[in-house]
Every structure is written in C-alpha cells, then in structure tokens.
Amino acid sequence: MPADRVPAAQVCRFIAAAMERLGLPAEDAHTVARLMTAAEVQGSDGHGVIRLVPYARRIRAGGVNARPHIRIAKEKAAMALIDGDNGMGHLVMHKAAQIAIAKARQCGVAWVGARASNHAGAASLYARMALEHDMLGLYFAVGNANHLPPWGGLDLLLSTNPIAVAVPAGEEPPVVLDMATSVAAYGKVRARAQRGEALPEGWMVDRRGEPLTDPRRAAEGLLLPIGGYKGYGLALVIGLLAGTLNRAAMGSEVVDFSRDDTTPTNTGQAILVIDPDAFGEVDAFKARVDRLLRELRASERMPGVERIRIPGEQSHEKRLANERDGLALPPALREQLDVLARELAIPALGED
Fold it and tell me: Quick one: CA dihedral 183, 231, 41, 9, positive or negative?
C-alpha cells in the first residue's frame, strides 16, 4: 500500500473511537463509522471522513442526540414513519432501510419516511442496502443547508435535495445513481476547498449571476440546479416527499448545520424499496438488466468519446482501488483529525 494512503479499516476504527468518545453507544458508533468509511471508499469524499469534525462539533454542542430512541411513529403494511429523536442521520436511515427491506419482502414494495433526523452522508449508502437482498432501493432527502434559490430568485429556500437509485444486476455491477439536484453537491465544494482546488465554472454563481470558482467564497454564492428550471422543480418535489410529507424541515425551516451547532435540524429523508420478485423471477430480471447495460456500453460513440459509462461504474472502480490501495486523505484533513484526536484523548489516525 502506498505510504501516503491509509487503510480503510484504520479510518473506520478511528471514526468509531471518536464517536464512542463523543457519547454514542459502541454499536451505534460502529454503524456510523462503517457508513462514513463506505462513503469515503466509494469516492464520496464530501460525505466521508471530512464530515467527522463538523459532526463532533454538533454532538458536543448538543445539536445532535448521541443516544436517541429511534422509533416507528406511524405504520401500515407497506409504509412507516420513523422518528429519529434527533440522532445521527446514519443511524436513522440505517434503521429506515432495514424496515423498508423487511416490508418490501412481505408487500413487494415499501416506503419509509424519517423526521427528526440529521445529515446521513452519501445518499447511495442507503439505496445500496437493498442490493444485498436483490431489491431496488430509492433514497430521497432534504439537504442540511439551503444553497439553491427558486428558479429566477435569489432567496436560498431549497437545498441540494439528493436522490439515489440502486438497481441490482447479474454479472454486471449494479446500476447506482447518486446525484444532487444541483450541478454539484455542497459537500463537493467543501472537498475542493479542503484540497485547495478551484470550482469548475457552472457549479456556483454569485448574486450578480457571475461564475464563482473560489471555494473560499462559497458562502457568498448560489449553487446552480441541474437542467435549469427542471432541476429546481426536481429539488422542490424531492423536498416535498422527504421533508414536508414527514413533517420535517423544508424551505425556510431548514437549519444550516454548518453554521448552527445547537438547533435540531429536523432533517427529512425517505427510502423506497421494491422487490423484483413481486414482478417475476429475480434472476431473469437481473439478466435483462445485464443485457441492457451491455447494449448501452457497446452502442456507437460520438467522436472523441472513449467509453460509455453506466451510473455507479466510477464509484465501483474507486471502491475496488481504495480497498486495494487505501484512502488518500488531504494533509489539511489529517491535521484536523489529529487535533480532534487530541481533544477526545484517542489515538491519532493510524496509531491504534
């Protein structure tokens, strides 16, 4: 393994140790650590270990409940509403996904919403949980800070409100779509700032509509929606499904968790799980997915295009490489983690 890289297992142990010291029960700490590390391994670095210091700050300030009683508030055969008791979003959505999978096995489909949750990291983590059971997963969430105005406006009333979809395949890697409804998720802006990299034009504009490429000025800017007004509409609808339907925060109610460490965010999320066995033989479905993916990949390419990719393909390749070679963490992030380790009186990353 290259000297400048850290094994994923070490990162996971470090996160778990930090979470335990912050007051989470051991099992919960390890669940959060596994999910945060999984995000880092698949290349979702804006939702991986870079989030540990902000999470720690909010937990210590009382903005997140370290020992929540996560419960089902309402339930029917194919649905449930989870009250997260202001716990870590990873724990809330891990439980929500488990419930949705169990209900889908009985009903063919299940929708589980969550309120009183918190930021849960990469959206695809929860959609992918269905893949382990040969099921399809769809995840929706209200982001934890508003960076998106309504189309044509300036007031920040919407977040990046992500959607993730995971579809099992047979011999091919699964199809995994994970996207914000803005051109780039704000976590990617943070990651660029951490690495000292400029933002590509088209990610953000300032309040005059001019391109903003300096991530240090991100607080002055507006994220742009995907597809113009269509992305705005998608962000709104996802927010209604994940937030308003669950009596969770939406619009001006959304709390910017990077600026406010004490106010509960009442984050809303939802997961939909579909069991293909309800529609026919599962292996036959997966074989049809394989056939379609190969057809797409083998289709005629435009000039200059070397390869036609399938959603989730790059994350799959990054996962294999990072599991083999370890994780490359920016020096500035390592310094922050060292400071946190000293504050929590735990071994520094790699010293366990």
Answer: positive
Residues 247 and 345 in one domain: no
CATH number of the CATH domain containing 172 = 3.30.1370.60
Number of Cβ within 10 Å of residue 71's Cβ equals 11
Cα separation of 282 and 290, whole Å?
12
Asked whether residue 211 is domain-assigned, the answer is no
**Distances from the Cα of 7 to the Cα of 11, 58, 323, 342, angstroms:** 7, 27, 8, 21
Give the ranges where 180-312 is alpha helix by DSSP (H).
186-195, 229-242, 282-297
Could you give the angle at the alpha carbon of 132 between the alpha carbons of 24 and 36, nearest 5°?
35
Q: In one letter, which amino acid is 72?
A: I
Q: What is the Cα gyration radius of the chain?
A: 20
Q: What is the DSSP string of 42-106?
A: TT-GGGTGGGHHHHHHHHHHTSS-SS---EEEEEETTEEEEE-TT--HHHHHHHHHHHHHHHHHH
Q: Report, as an integer, the average pLDDT of 301-319.
A: 95
pLDDT in tens, 64-103: 999 999 999 999 999 999 999 999 999 999 999 999 999 9
| Residues 162 and 288 grouped into a single domain | yes
Q: What is the largest CA-CA distance in the chain?
A: 57
The bridge status of strand 136-141 relative to strand 204-205 is: unpaired
Q: Give this prediction's pTM.
A: 0.93
**Domain count for the chain:** 2
Residue 167's domain comprises 68-182+225-298
**Sign of torsion, CA 341 187 37 63?**
positive
DSSP state of 6: B
Q: Tell whether 275 and 176 lie within a shared domain.
A: yes
Q: What is the DSSP letter of 199?
A: P
Q: Are 324 and 9 in contact, with CB atoms under 8 Å apart?
A: no
